[in-house]
Amino acid sequence: MTPSWILDIxxxxxxxxxxxSAGRLVAARPWAxxxxxxxxxxxxxxxxxxxxxxxxxxxxxxPNDVWDVIFAVLTGWFGWRVYHESRGEGVRVLADGHxxxxxxxxxxxxxxFVAISAPAAAGGGGMSGMSGGASAMxxxxxxxxAFIFALWxxxxxxxxxxxxxxxGHGHGSYFARPxxxxxxxxxVGAAAGSGSVGLATxxxxxxxxxxxxxxxxxxATGPGQPTGNGGAGSxxxxxxxxxLLLGPKVAAGCRIAMGLTMAxxxxxxx
Amino acid sequence: MSDVAVxxxxxARQRGQGTAAEGIWQxxxxxxxxxxxxxxxxxxxxxxxxxxxxxxxxxxxxxAGTASxxxxxxxxxxxxxxxxxxxxxxLVNTIFAxxxxxxGLGIAWxxxxxxxxAASIAWSLGVWWFGEGLGGVLNGAASPLNGAPGxxxxxxxxxxxxxxxxxxxxxxxxPAARAVGAPVARALWLVLWGCLAYFALVPANRAPQALHDxxxxxxxxxxxxxxxxxxxxxxxLAHHGLAASIVLAIALVVIAVxxxxxxxxxRATVVLAIVVAALIWVFGEAFGAILAGGATDPNSxxxxxxxxxxxxxxxxxATAPEAxxxxxxxxxxxxxxxxVA
Lengths: 270, 341
Prior knowledge:
heterodimer, A: mainly alpha, 2 domains, 9 helices, globular, B: mainly alpha
């Protein structure tokens, strides 16, 4: 079978994605204002945990039946979001929609958990996780579906990479929606010359009204250069880290890592 | 390149820089879409290379098998390579898979496009020899239905044709001609499809049961519906190998010369090429045997479809080269000279 250290590395990567997604959820503070991409971050968090458990049996957390329900709900949720998006954008949403890749990710996860077949003989394809025990090699029923999902996920990976490396990747809401970022994060981002000076909108003024959060577009994600204004302390650094964490590059990076790993899992379980 | 074109290019670059500075994302143009498709296939290859089977001696035996029937000068290095892989299976296969992963990611990531495409050419040539035994071209086993002239050589061809240069963009009648020019692109197309026509007619492939056996042999290990398709197609061709080979060869010759025809006819032959390639991919190659496990790539059918798409005649020759050089070149706003033609 595929060497266990490769599966270990990928499981570690998925746990990292889960941790980053959890960090994004905390940083965005969806309970304090705009929900931003909370649904996507929750989905990534759950997928990261589930995939790590599929890759390495010792990291398995919940029974497969529970994951079935979770990913059925997520698939339904993102299907609903894509449907709403398509009402405005039509079929373009399939290539350009904000939620479409997450619908495919959720559906692929649901398929993987539902289509698990009886363990194959040792030396066959598959992985050791998925509640099957450390020695069981899992394969998928209806392998053509796995192949289609894998291709689809790979297509999203290359589209994301192209978009991320092209001009203007930070504009629009393709990778990350404007989220509620703490005001200090927005201000530090502006002071760091990240281009967000004129972009922070809403109640960004410290102490002004509810003033605890500012809606910051995705491009306001400077890498947190030293501000040199003397007023930036550890709080500013934390704010800068928050802005970075909520930026489109991190969102895209999580999506790319997850899509590629998922495609890998689908193919090796054929 | 004319001075006018150069001046136009500078103007376009200035416009493009403005665009980049404004940071407005533009959708990829046709050539960039094809490059991304190539990147996706490299990523698929990488994932396939990480399959369990590739970490077994079956992989090195598969490599060694490609030496069979080749001249000694070709076969000996293949045998040596297969032995090396057999001795260091996990390490070598991991390196192979990772290289393909990096090629796919590199082509999709715009700043590394040129490096990745150049590396993919070198890698493809190496795999064509050491991994595919030159696609069976020299041992008489090559057939259009079994991946001749070697799927991986088509990766190299695509990398050349989709190179991010707009040297001939002003006169390019199709995306594949933008970098190398229409005469060279057409000649490459003619040679490839002409070779496929020749392979269709070699004695081993025109024997009464040759096509039947080849297609029926692909059914093993496939999902039921695909095995049934293959078996049905094989039974249709039973004892009709010669007639089927002649029909296939005629279609391939028409495709080969089609790029020299006027645009409507050229489009028709490109459509024919896509149809023939799809039939080859489904019936002759069973989707590269990916669904049966143990495939290292999707085989030639998918690549031939991608190649045919890169020869799709553009609406107008002397217009802007799809106006999105940043997407095409991987560099912000470089090479929009075609706009002035």
